[in-house]
Amino acid sequence: MKQRIITAVVAAALFVPIVFYGGLPFVLLSYFLATVGLYELLKMKNLSIFTVHGFLATLFLWVIIFPKQYDHIMNTFYYTKTEVAIAFVLLLLAYTVITKNRFTFEDGAFSVLSSVYVGMGFYFFMEARDAGLVYIFYSLFIMWATDSGAYFIGKAAGKNKLWPEISPNKTIEGSLGGVVCALIVGVLFALFSDFNASLLEILGITIVLSVFGQIGDLVESAFKRHFNVKDSGKILPGHGGILDRFDSLLFVWPLLHFFHLWPNL
Asked: Which residue windows are transmembrane per the record (predicted)?
């Protein structure tokens, strides 16, 4: 517990000021987190990021999370993000031939989906920060409330397993408790923020985000169970890896964007 607290304090001391400042430092932080997340995911399948295919997958990830405020740089070369992304997919497919199938189609598909999975989350992380700090804190507090509520209510009253094949300790009672705790946070944000939505809409959005955040957590649990690993990484002592900390948010941030909470979209 002591190690977890120390790690959390140090990480917050580094993370929060950069999130507040925004701009290029925040973009670089997002790129760093996403790259480490991809490294962890590839490592689960015994694929190294420090290889030709790992390099291609990383470049593919970087294209996916390329912030829209810098689109003019890419437009200088008369290419869109989609076109560049397709080029990397073709290169990964060609690499299966070059390696005489030592790097297989399955490996290539895993690399592409891994880049998309990690990339979409951190791209919309930057989109949320662009829209305003309130959306970052809303998403963070929603998931912290969900995780805490699910843990404590699950411990106190959990009897029915939620999905034992994937995460044996999670319960239906804990999951519902997490949603209730998230709703309390949602009410507070609805009352004291300038969200472009009514209280009823905020409550509905909060329920969806809480549920899908838990699904995001289960997705990463399924990865770890399939590949027989305890944590995605060791970069955060006591907490595991980047994916262990951001798994829920990788689902929440894209959905937050799709709900169009912020104006002028």
From this structure: 6-34, 46-65, 77-97, 109-126, 132-153, 174-192, 198-219
Q: Are strands 167-171 and 161-163 parallel, antiparallel or unpaired?
A: antiparallel
Task: Put residue 260 in one of left, alpha, beta given phi > 0 → left and psi -120 to 50 → alpha.
Answer: left
- Are 65 and 112 found together in one domain? yes
Last residue of a domain, one of 72, 98, 131: 131
In sign, the C-alpha dihedral spanning 159, 165, 168, 174 is negative
Q: Which residue range forms the structural domain that includes residue 73? A: 1-131
Residues with Cβ within 8 Å of residue 217, at least 6 apart in sequence: 147, 167, 247, 248
- pLDDT, one tens digit per residue, over 109-121 is 999 999 999 999 9
Contact 29, 11 (CB under 8 A): no
pLDDT digits (tens, 9 = 90+) for 146-155: 999 988 988 8
